[in-house]
């Protein structure tokens, strides 16, 4: 029964008990379903929040890892640049050594490796660049080993050539055609004459092996040293010979005492340099050593 305002009629209608039961059951079921759904939704939401929080944490970790790795990459790039700079300074050192011993500067083309000096911007730690740097270092090592043998050979040559005066005195006669001190006319003088008192120590002008030590017509008591490289030096008119054939001598070793033996007009050392058997102006070699 429904009772509206006082002016209107009372409405009445019947509802059966089974209908009420059904309505109650349906309503209860709906409420239960809604409650279960809400609980489930709540749990799912909570779970999703956990997952999101974990992902956020992971992202933070990865971000910090990336920053760390970026730093490491920057360090590696810097190291690669340092290595490149070191290679450049090795190049400079190599050139310095070459200049010091009078070797020609290195050839620009050396196999497949690019010899261009890399700009700093091109240097990174990446595999290609690292491989190239390693290859450069290998090449450099090879070059330095080559240089060492060349320097050793060069030093041997420089130690060997007769480049210092055997005695210090007045040069009384130079190399070449001169007026003969013994007869009328001119003659070829194959060396230089250095005037010194009898008994002055005569020194080897360079490293070598004595190939002659004895009397030779004209030269008197003479010592001949073979310096290798086709070069020989001759020391004439000695009063005394202090070395034997086959003896190795160093530059500056005393090989004789000066004198006035053989075809000589006064006490002096006749100093001669022969290249492949032919006398050359000793001044060319002495100028190198003095
Ligand atoms: Zn002479």
Give the SSE map.
Blueprint lengths: L16 H84 L26 H34 L9 E4 L2 E4 L6 E4 L2 E4 L5 E3 L4 E9 L3 E9 L2 E8 L1 E2 L6 E2 L4 E4 L10 E8 L2 E3 L1 H8 L1
Bound molecules: zinc ion.
Structure description:
There is one protein chain. The protein contains three helices and 13 strands, in the order ααβββββββββββββα. The chain is α+β, with helices and mostly antiparallel strands and 290 residues long. The chain has two domains: 160 residues, no CATH class; 120 residues, Glucose Permease (Domain IIA). The strands form three sheets. Strands 1, 4, 6, 7, 8, 10, 12 and 13 form an eight-stranded antiparallel β-sheet that branches. A three-stranded antiparallel β-sheet has the order 5-11-9, with no helix packed on it. A two-stranded antiparallel sheet has the order 2-3. The chain is rod-shaped and about 180 Å long. About 3% of the residues have low confidence. The structure holds zinc ion. Zinc ion binds next to loops.
